[in-house]
Amino acid sequence: MDFDKAKLVFKDYLKNYDLNDKKTKSKIVHTYGVVELSEYIAKDLGLDNENIELAKLIALLHDIGRFEEIRRYDNFVDKQIFDHANFGAKILFEDGMIRDFIEDDKYDSIIKKAIVNHSKYAIEEEGLSEQELLHSKIIRDSDKTDNIRRRAISGFEDISDTSESIIATQTITDKIFKDFMEHKTIVKNERKTFVDRWISYISFIFDYNFSSGLEYIKEKDYINMLVDKIDFQNEETRNGMEQIRECANEYIMEKIFKSLK
After folding, report:
1. Taken in order 170, 156, 55, 251, is the CA torsion positive or negative?
2. pTM: predicted TM-score of the whole model, two decimal places
3. Cα 89 from chain centroid?
4. What is the mean pLDDT of each run of 10 residues along the chain (261 residues)?
5. What's the pLDDT score for residue 158?
6. pLDDT for residue 161
């Protein structure tokens, strides 16, 4: 497995798209961020070099379908219109592009199933081998971690089409708040306000498979950074976000503590 070669193939593939487009740039940055985090998680799990390199390759390819989605729709659309994970699997395995990235086909099933599962609400575990499930879990954790990281450290103009001033005036939907406090990931189509959407990113922590991603988030202080990033104008929203901060930080600490036993 030659990951450096795969990176060159990926870079060449990107030439098919507008590299000056904001959304395209965003997905390129995200892809390399997920590669970095997949390596971090795989090493933390004590995996051998073969599986570390495989985790990195899956990360490199996990969002390959996003670029065509951007070109076709100029946005990230509903899955019923365009499922970027399934499209990525199609061009890689039905159209044969995977052989440009890796010559050996013995990893194909692992790569395909990890890519297809990375963006689902939950992993479809039935029929997965131990290694397929492992890599599906790694890519989901690294993908979520990078989405949290980027929103914590990036300027609003780089991560949202909505201004901070607009988000700051909005409120939290009761169901979204209740679900978060019950440690549930937020269902996308139940979000009503931009604050709900912001909370949904924090709720990613409730769907982690390994403690290493949560440890990374704690070490970097991303939960506090996300809550503090917006100067909420509504007092009820400010109070709600403080409860969300406390809930999230306590949850992360509890999960890390349990992993150490």
Report:
1. negative
2. 0.90
3. 17
4. 94 94 91 96 96 98 92 77 90 94 95 93 88 97 94 75 80 96 92 92 95 94 94 93 97 90 64
5. 64
6. 67
Best CA proximity match to 23, nearest among 62, 55, 68, 56:
68
Q: What is the pLDDT of residue 132?
A: 96
Dihedral over alpha carbons 107, 111, 117, 123 (to 10 degrees): 30
Long-range Cβ contact pairs of 143-147 (< 8 A, separation 24 or more): 143/34, 143/59, 143/62, 143/118, 143/119, 144/204, 144/205, 144/207, 144/208, 144/213, 145/37, 145/213, 145/216, 145/217, 146/30, 146/33, 146/34, 146/36, 146/37, 147/30, 147/201, 147/204
CA distance 162 to 170: 12
Which two structure tokens, joined as six digits, stand for 222?
Answer: 């991303």
- Report the alpha-carbon distance of residue 195 to residue 180 in Å, rounded: 13
Residue for token pair 């390596």: 39
- CA separation, residue 232 to residues 167, 176, 181, 215 (Å): 8, 17, 19, 27
C-alpha to C-alpha distances, 80 to 77, 93, 121, nearest whole angstrom: 8, 21, 14
State residue 159's pLDDT score: 65
